[in-house]
Each structure stands twice: as C-alpha cells, then as structure tokens.
C-alpha cells in the first residue's frame, strides 16, 4: 500500500510539485517557476467564468497550467514553451498527475494563434533577454531587441482581444500590457496583477 504520509500531494506545495522532476529542474524552481499560492490565485481569476481556454505564455515545465487545471477542472489550461526539454518535462508531469484538462505546445509563442485562447497568464517570460545573470540555459539566443520584439508582439495580440479578456501578469515590466486593460486586483507587493480588457 502506498504511504501517503510520506509526501504531500503534488499540487499542495512547491516542494511536492518539484518532486515530480529531476534535481536539475528542481534547482530552477525557485527563480523560474510560479509558486503554488500565486498559481492558485492567478488561476482563480482566469477561470472565474468557467469553461475558458487559458494560455500560459512561456509555460516552462507546466507548473502554472497543471496547478490551475487541478483546481479548476471546468477550464482548459494550455502552455506554450520554446524549450523542448522543458516541454518534455511538462508532458511527463501531465501524464504522471493524470491531468486531462491541460495541453502543452512546444514552440515560440509567436507561432501560436492567440485568437484561439480566451485568457492569458504571463510570468515575465521575455525577461531572460535582459537578465544576463539568471538564465535557464545557454541554448538559445538572447538580446534586448528580442525582448522588445516579443513584448510588442504580445502587446498587439492582447490589444486585439475582445472586451472581457483576462490577463494575469507576474513580475512583469508591463511592456506587453496595452492601456485597454484595466487593473482589477493585485497582490500586496504588486508583483501579481490581474487585468481585464475594457
Ligand atoms: C519565468 S519562466 C515561467 C514558467 C511558467 N510559466 C511558470 O510560471 O511556472 C518563463 C518561460 O518562458 C519561456 N519562454 C521565453 N520566451 C519564450 C517565447 N518567445 N516563446 C515560448 N516560450 C518562451 C522560457 O523558456 C521559460 O521556460
């Protein structure tokens, strides 16, 4: 019989979620993946109308999407991730946790049709182009102009979305948030922000 006292369920704490992955991936967790409490608050806002399609832009190993999918089974949580290794770990975690309302796409977010999704989560994915110290790896090209290109691209796409579109940003510099998005709520430290298109 499995000893459930040994470890908490995967969706309860950051440590229990990290346990799904190899040690190298666990070491990235604190700096690069959304904390469980933040993921729950963000998902509650994005899923509040029920049965929507929610996209995490730059989904890493799928932490936001898997936690959101667990707590909000009426919505579908998608993630698009440019690094194939991280995408592979997200798929493995989806299978291990038997999460049916999540999907993961491997590619650059610019290759995805954002018109297909209702609401968006964004944990400052493009900042790696500005931050020379804390990069996930050295496998891709980084540049200030890529940061600007991605931010402007996402800004335009978000600007085209209909009224009622929900957006959650975490640690964002807000270069991708068009003025048509109204701030609805924020965490005390203002790192987590909930927006809605007017
Ligand atoms: C800060 S991590 C957040 C991971 C995940 N959203 C979470 O909250 O746990 C940002 C992720 O965005 C990915 N990323 C950065 N630029 C991207 C792009 N243009 N297209 C797709 N993924 C991107 C990075 O590879 C990284 O895994």
Automatic annotation (TrEMBL):
Gene3D superfamilies: Vaccinia Virus protein VP39 (3.40.50.150). InterPro entries: SAM-dependent_MTases_sf. It comes from the Bacteria. This is Methyltransferase. It comes from Chitinophaga ginsengisegetis.
């Amino acid at each position: 019989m499995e000893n459930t006292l040994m470890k908490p369920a995967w969706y309860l704490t950051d440590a229990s979620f990290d346990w799904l992955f190899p040690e190298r991936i666990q070491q990235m967790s604190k700096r690069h993946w959304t904390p469980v409490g933040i993921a729950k608050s963000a998902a509650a806002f994005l899923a509040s109308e029920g049965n929507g399609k929610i996209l995490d832009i730059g989904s890493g190993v799928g932490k936001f999407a898997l936690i959101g999918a667990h707590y909000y089974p009426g919505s579908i949580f998608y993630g698009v991730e440019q690094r194939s290794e991280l995408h592979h770990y997200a798929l493995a975690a989806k299978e291990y946790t038997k999460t049916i309302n999540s999907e993961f796409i491997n590619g650059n977010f610019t290759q995805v049709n954002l018109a297909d999704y209702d609401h968006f989560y964004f944990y400052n994915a493009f900042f790696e182009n500005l931050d020379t110290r804390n990069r996930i790896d050295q496998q891709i090209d980084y540049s200030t102009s890529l940061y600007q290109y991605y931010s402007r691209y996402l800004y335009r796409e978000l600007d085209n979305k209909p009224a009622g579109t929900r957006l959650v940003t975490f640690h964002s510099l807000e270069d991708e948030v068009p003025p048509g998005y109204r701030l609805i709520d924020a965490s005390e430290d203002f790192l987590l922000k909930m927006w809605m298109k007017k």
